[in-house]
Amino acid sequence: MADLFAGIGTSHVPGIGAAVDKGMTQNDYWKPLFDGYEPAREWLAKEAPDVVIIVYNDHASAFSMELIPTFALGVAAEFQPADEGYGPRKVPTVQGHPELAWHLAESLILDEFDMTIVNEMPVDHGLTVPLSITCGQPEAWPFKVIPLCVNVIQYPQPTGNRCYQLGKAIRRAVDSFDRDLKVAIFGTGGMSHQLQGERAGLVNAEFDIAFLDDLTRNVDRLVNISHVEYMRESGSEGAELVMWMIMRGALDDDAKELYRHFHVPASNTAAGLIILENP
Ligand code: DHB
Ligand code: FE
Asked: Which residues pair with 10 in a beta bridge?
């Protein structure tokens, strides 16, 4: 049977991807951030999952204002890096896992989560930066990826609780997939950031660290954080953290924290990474 064994929460700041692409990870600004990613990379390489479900948001790259799916599941065999205005990142094409992805689509929809099924979409920094953070610069990404794209851009976004419940449904789906596959799940975005307006550059480390703590200590509190609270405490883009709740929901209630890294600044934001593993 397929086994969903662990999850990673990580920021997806585009500047982190640019630092990798331009060979700047060892300069004074970026080195402390990248040093903290190293143990996570080693752990992931050792665990060697077959498939990773990456929960991320599209930043008007694949979907414009014409079409805004709340939850979109990529079922294609491959996904090309998106052109976000500077040409596509020179990173490997993302290989999908159509068999598991279609099983997820069937299981989730029959479980009453109305997913949008996507046969073709370019994937932007929301998905490729977490790959760079956790895998570096390989010739090919070392695992298959199922993109799960969440609308956190346009009001009304899904609630943290809805995301958490979707995570639980993803777990039921993976558990019922009749093939030996080692599966991990990433929740991306955050941590605190506000990219525009008078509060641009807002970082609330206290909020972020309490969020990291409560992923294992008090998930109920996190499930009930409202969009307004995210925006007030962690900036308007801090609300991307609802995507971490999908990752958390897919894990066991008593998942353990294996590793964390928290660093300010990364661009205008606080960057966080956490590894959670089922006992
Ligand atoms: C930045 C962060 C993001 O999460 C994002 O999607 C775009 C930009 C930033 O810090 O610049
Ligand atoms: Fe983002």
From this structure: 188, 273
